[in-house]
Amino acid sequence: MVGRRFAIALAFLLCAAAAEAAEFDRTVSVPRGTRLDVRLYAGQVVVRAWDRDAVRVRATHFTSDEIDLRTIGRAIAVRAHARRGTPHGIDFEIDVPAWMAVDVAGTYLDVAVEGTAADVAAETVRGDVHVKGGAGSLKLKAIDGEVVLEGARGRAELSSTNDGIRVTGFTGEIIADTVNGSVKLRAIQSISIEVGTFGGDISWEGTISDDGRYQFATHTGGVDVSLDDRVNATVSVRAFEGTFRAAFPVNLPDEASRHRRFSFVLGSGAAHLDLETFGGTISLRPLQMTAR
Known about the structure:
This protein is mainly β.
């Protein structure tokens, strides 16, 4: 994961002459139902699942830093702050049981979660969020950073203001929105997808289920949808000042226009596929034509 922490790294170096490095390494046993709650100002948090009913927290930090690991209700809480000097980044590696729900938030923070099979919540202002695994409620948000979700299942709410969103190998419901970034969805199994972006492109490669509803809307970007030849969907197109293109035969209604709303049916028309752009291009292509 590429961080955006130049200012933090600079502060770290300026403080290095006045402080010595210390190692934090603590393991605590946890009962089922406990969740991980991490709140940090800056740095990086890497959470990995292991096969023990325990949480291990490791960090390299200045001796002037204070790291707090405690139980609060049904949560293991991790906090850190500098007792003196300029706040700086601290990198944590945390091992948790696969069943444990994870909640991480920070300001200048990169977040990576891997291998868990429970709820994941991650929020950062300037940094990336990368989750591999997870099940249940998945709430990932970055203001100035990329959001990546891989191999998860459940209900995903994904948001990035100034960067993109990428989802691969997901099963479940997705709600994704970004202002200036693109949204890329690959190998998705879902009956409910809602994606919106203002200045980015949207691309989709996945299964369209007969009982599903799929909504893709962008203002200035394009919408690129790859479909297999067995799809059954009623497709609604709103191109406004944009254009519509299909790389396979489509029976368009007589009133279809590049500057008007129109609908057409693929197969039985069972699913609902809504595609919208104001000034971009909406493209339909066979799944086998997608670049691998």
